[in-house]
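[recover] target loaded
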């Protein structure tokens, strides 16, 4: 098993709060916890980005980055709307954007449209890191490969397994391995959805994940032996 210290593992984590019922107070609590735990980033809904200046009191982020989502969670947004949403998110302070592809279009084999969708968001997010959520649990292996290739062709920085909201499920070791095999060391791979303990987090990293999307980051880190 890969040996990572608690601080090292924390730097793989996007500490995530994307629940529809989340409040400003919840985002502030998430941020404080992220700083305490030393996670790489927080990941919050785009409407919550303005909490960084809410009431003139900025979030105390320290070195923690801000990530948000785009076209979330269905991916069934008009491409121009996704691009506009992503551009607004970057303008509102997001350092990273996790966009959702239209999974149905991919499953139909219209990969060129998926590539164009990603490219539009890429153009709108210059200067920010772009992750592409492919909803791997709803795809065949061939479709996972096609989605990863589309993301790379369109200039994305990462491919990501899941929204965590799809009934087909979240991250799997098999999907992470296949995604890493497809993109090599050219793109990052983010595993997200259903990672709730230290052993699973480490297994995802060993399979090829370079980032982890976690809502229960404290529980995972508390399982760390050092």
């Amino acid at each position: 098993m890969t040996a990572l210290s608690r601080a090292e593992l924390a730097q793989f984590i996007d500490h995530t709060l994307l629940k529809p019922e989340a409040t400003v107070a919840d985002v502030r609590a998430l941020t404080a916890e992220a700083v305490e735990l030393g996670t790489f980033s927080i990941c919050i809904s785009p409407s919550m980005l303005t909490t960084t200046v809410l009431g003139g009191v900025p979030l105390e982020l320290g070195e923690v980055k801000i990530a948000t989502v785009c076209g979330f969670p269905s991916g069934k947004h008009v491409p121009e709307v996704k691009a506009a949403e992503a551009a607004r998110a970057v303008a509102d302070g997001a350092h990273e954007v996790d966009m959702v592809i239209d999974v149905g279009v991919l499953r139909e084999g219209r990969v060129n449209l998926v590539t164009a969708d990603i490219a539009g968001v890429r153009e709108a997010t210059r200067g920010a890191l772009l992750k592409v959520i492919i909803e791997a649990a709803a795809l065949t292996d061939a479709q996972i490969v096609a989605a990863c290739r589309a993301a790379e062709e369109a200039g994305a920085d990462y491919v990501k397994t899941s929204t965590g909201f799809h009934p087909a499920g979240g991250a799997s070791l098999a999907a992470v391995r296949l995604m890493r095999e497809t993109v090599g060391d050219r793109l990052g791979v983010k595993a997200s959805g259903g990672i709730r303990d230290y052993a699973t987090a480490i297994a995802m990293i060993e399979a090829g994940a370079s980032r982890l999307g976690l809502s229960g980051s404290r529980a995972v880190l508390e399982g760390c032996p050092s």
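[recover] notes: Strands lie at 13-17, 41-44, 65-70, 96-100, 129-133, 158-160, 188-192, 211-214.
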